[in-house]
Amino acid sequence: MSDQTAPPGGAPEQAQQPMPQIQINVQYVKDLSFESPNAPQILLQPASGQPKIDVSVDVQARSGGDSRYEVELHINATAERAGERAFVVEVAYAGIFTLLNVPQEAIRLVCLIECPRLLFPFVRRIIADCTRDGGFPPLMLEPIDFAQLLRQQAARAQAATSSPVA
User: Fold this and answer.
1) Contacts with 130 (C-beta within 8 Å, 6 or more apart), sequence order
2) Is 3.20.20.70 the CATH classification of the domain at 21-140?
3) pLDDT in tens, 124-150
4) What is the pTM of this model?
């Protein structure tokens, strides 16, 4: 006979690990810049095809103690039309996150993948608003696969460390 009693319809209760949680304490624009170096001429030219858009993304994370982490999402977007720069928009958007019950070995991945994934919709809106307010059609960024971005950065770092020195 067992000393444990099973709850109705279930097995004996086991010690359950608390679920990992990500809390967003605050999020904010850390730096924002919009430039249209060839305005107003570029705005008056008839649009001929799609502009060439280059987007770069970077994520940085820092520990703030007490299970808090500051995660910064940097996005730079440049548009060129007919060989002339139409605009440059640069955003550094950050959030302070509290990570509860997250295993130590997973903190880096949470900070560099999940936290920027939560920040991205806000950065996307800021960029769309800036480009629209600058006289251009809103730049609607495609969703970003932050796990793939992290893998690419790791591969570049690995290639840089394994490159032979001449």
Assistant:
1) 32, 34, 89, 91
2) no
3) 999 999 999 999 999 999 999 999 999
4) 0.82
